[in-house]
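#struct-pred
JK: can someone run the complex with magnesium ion? inputs below
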Amino acid sequence: MTFSVHGLAVSRGIAIGRAVLVASSRADVAHYFIEDDKTADEITRVRISRNAVMEEITRLQQDLPKDAPHELAALLDVHLMLLQDEQLISGVKHWIVDRHYNAEWALTTQYEIIARQFDDMEDEYLRERKADLEQVVERILRHMKGVASPVQPAAQAGAGRKLSQQDLLLDDTTDVPLVLVAHDLSPADMLQFKQSLFAGFATDVGGKTSHTAIVARSMDIPAVVGARSASQLIKQDDWVIIDGDAGVLIVDPSPIILAEYGFKQRQGELERQRLNRLKNTPSLTIDGQRVELLANIEMPEDTLGAVTAGAVGVGLFRSEFLFMGRSGKLPDEEEQYQAYRKAIEGMHGLPVTIRTVDIGSDKPLDRHAKAQDTHLNPALGLRAIRWSLADPPMFLTQLRAILRAAAHGQVNLLVPMLAHATEIRQTMSLIDHARATLDNNGTPYGPVRLGAMIEIPAAALTLKLFLKYFDFLSIGTNDLIQYTLAIDRADEAVSHLYDPCHPAVLRLIADTIAECDAQGKGVSVCGEMAGDVGMTRLLLGLGLRSFSMHPSQILAVKQQILRADASKLQPWAEQVLASEDPAALLQSA
Ligand code: PEP
Ligand code: MG
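RT: done, structure tokens with the ligand placed:
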């Protein structure tokens, strides 16, 4: 029966596919498709690991001391029984043979199905056996890490393929698009799925500018977050439509609904094709004002998309993505240098703005050690520049890597989350220190322009201090909104209060642009607001001439710029700023 689940629209477009439910703790399990002739090998991998776990448990049983509690022996019996469970074994085979999932993926998929059956059980004792099943599956997965896959995670033929009605009606079980449904995904999980096979994402939690949502947007695939109980309501393998424009998930859609969404999907593709024609059109307003359109990237490889979309540089390279999901082992100077150099070379002489690491809050280093676990208020805690200044050797390593990479092209070095004069001075002195070390070692490096993010209201209210030290400013509206309105950007429960048009937010943005203009310093917006076509005219009216956004948003924003007359927008923007309800004026414009 068709039903819908509502959430927040975070990445545009329509995806239609079968649901893959992934528990966040198992999101780091490899997901890839295998070739026909490799199914037997994958089944063997699971069998070898399962047998090894059975042997382990049998040995444990034999070695149990005589006075061991009876419950312990009984528990090991249960584990042995679960390992031989017919539903587990045949289910895993089914996912490998019929769907061509790799072994780990097949195992976790089948686990999710059985776990759900345990959840539905009346008997409390049986319900609790879910935890035992989880333990044995984790044990098998651990073993499988040592049993190499005979196949590489290859680019998958059906990945992201748009679905026709016929496909759906034929229900071709081996080559259908898949959509990922999870309670939560960390930014590192999302990054792992970046080159993956999923046509869309949905999560129970998350706000519009949570970093998970940002990565989904950067991947340019439809996504809905904050869909509350989606991962409970949707079952493994259900057909799901992800409507990333409306923020809705439609589960088990009827043929009429499918036809309607198939049509919307095609319309979206046509719109994309139309926008593509603007790629080489200069970004000028009707009255001839040039507007710089830059790209936000997470990895050096993203520069390809940036260049393809016609970006004239990278306005924000979120370097923290190089640091995440590595079990705390941070990239050394050489690895970072190579990554920054790759991004610089990928932009073929265009400027690249590298932001120093912004770890913390909803961007934990490691998905298993969420900052939330240890800090009361992670967004107000040790994140971004605070984290860097708390660990000078780590920060100096990054600074040296960026300075060295700057020998290969134009680099801007951007510092996140500054608020205090002392932080600015410490940062400057560490940059000097990094230069001095490179000088002493005779290591070549290049010049950098220094910039600060304006994302804490305190910074926006002390612009003169910032402009004394920095060559340019970049407004991080995601955090500026979060900290001005005291709304956790990742919390869907307060997402209705996360308001980019709040007069206080607009005032801080307007003042920052005006002060930079007055002092002849560069200023751009690199938060999500820059890629929101509903805000383009207002930002132009406030005098903004540099926007940095996901490559996928560049052409739509350019279209707005080509249609805008900046001289007429200026007085209108003044009215919006003075209004009690700016959003209403924006809508009526
Ligand atoms: C911002 O806060 O607007 C920003 C661009 O930084 P991030 O989203 O990475 O916190
Ligand atoms: Mg920020």
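RT: quick notes.
The pocket of magnesium ion (ligand 2) is lined by residues 416, 455, 476, 478-479 (CB under 6 Å).
Residues 144 and 243 are 36 Å apart (CA to CA).
JK: thanks, will look after standup
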